[in-house]
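Hi U.,

Before I forget, here's the chain from the pilot set. I'm dumping it here mostly so it's searchable later in email.
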Amino acid sequence: MGFQTGDQLQLDATVGNTGNEDYSAGGQIQFYQISSSTGSENPIGQAVTLNNLVVGATQSISTNVDTSTILMDESDPNTVFRAKFTGTVGESTNTNNMRDATAAHDLAPSSNPPTAAGSTSMERGETLDFEIMGSSRDNVDDMGTMSAEFETSVAGANQWSDAWVSGGSLMGEGTGNARYVFTVSPPNSAGSGDYDARARLIDARGQESEWSTVTSNAFSLKNGLPMVVTSDNLGEVPSNCPTYPGQPTVKVETIERIDVAGLICDAETPIDQLVISSTNPAFRLWDPVTGEIEVRFDTVNKNPQGEVVTQPLQVTINDGEDSNSGTLNIMVIENGAPRWSSLPTQSFNEGSGSSLILTPFLSDTDNLGQSSSPMGLALSIEYISNNSLITADLNGHTLNIDAVDDDVFGTALVTIRASDADGQSAETELTVIIANVNDAPTLDVSSFDNLKI
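Structure:
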C-alpha cells in the first residue's frame, strides 16, 4: 500500500531481546525519515527509552507521521523510514540495531492515447475495438488494479460521450502487453464523418489520470445510404427505421398519396431531408413535409390467371451526400368504377338493324377493388353521332340499333354509360356501320297520274 501527500501514517516497531542475557543497560529507539538524495537521517518524534528486557521480552513503540511535506515524485517513488537504537551498552552484536521500511508514493496514473485494433473506416452496423494502455507511475498500482474510461466525440467538437462505448475488459494481465479493450458501436442514427477518441486510467484509490492526448480522427463512420424497404430486405434495415408497413396499395386512375415511413429509410437522415424522385410516369411528386409520394397509375396489371399483380415504381433517393435507387412494388387495384371491354363493331345493311347484349363486356368492383356482379349496373345511351342514320334504345342490358329507313348508309357512333350504385360510371363507344345496298331499279310514273287514254 502506498500513501499520498497529506496522509497520516502510523509507524510501528517492536524491540525484542533475542540474546542469552537480560538487558537493563538503557538506550533509546528513534524513528527516522531517510533523505533519498543524501541518505541523511531526519528524526521523527521523540526517542523512546528502552525498557529492561529479560531474555525473550519485547517492547513495542509507534508514532504518527504527517506526510504533508513529502512530495510525490515519479523519479523518487518511495520514502524510506527507519527504526534505530541509540545509546545501547554491552550488546554482543549491533548488526540488528536498525531496520528500514519502504512506503511507496501513490501517484495518479497516466494514460496513453487510445489505439484502434482494426480498420478505422466503419460501415453502418460495424463495431471497432480500441486498446487503452498507460502507467501507474508508482510502485502501488499496476494495470490489474486500475480501471479505464474511454470516450468519443465528433471530430474537433469536444463533445465527449461514452454512449456508444461498451466493454473495458483487461486483456493480457501480468504481461508486458496489458491493456483495456473497449468496443465502439455507433448507432445507425449517428452522423457520418470523423470521430476523435480519448481515454484515462483510474487507480485503486480513485485517482484519475489526465485525459490522454486526443486521438484525432480515430475512426470514420461512412454515410449510410438511403434505402427502399421491401419484405425481402427487412434484415438489412437499420434498427431506428420505422416498422415496415407492408406493400402499399392504391386505386387505378386515382391520384393517391403513399406515406413512405417504413418504406424508405435513411439511418441518419430524417425523412423530410431526403429528396425522392422517379422517371416513372405514375410518379407525380414528393412531399417532404408530409413524408408522402403522390402517384397515379392508369392500369391494373394481372397475371395469366387473372390475378392482380404489383407494379414497380423505381425511385432515386438523395440524402445530401449520396444517392441510392430502389423499387417500390405497389399493388394497383380497381377504383370501384365500372369497366368496359371493347365492344364489337355492329354492321348491317341499310334498312336493317342489330341487337347486342352488353353484360359480357362489363365488369365492376367495390370500393376495396373486389369484383362485383355487373348485373346491377344501370346503362344509358348518352350520345348518337348521327341521328339521321340510326336510332338506338336499351332494354336492360340489350342494345337495339335500327337504320332510320331503307335508303341511308354510313357510319355512326353510339356512346353508352354504365353507372353503379356508388355513383361511379364509365363510358364506351360503339361503332355502327350501315352498308350501302344496290336496290332494284324502279319506274317513276307519277307524271302520268290522272292521264286518260
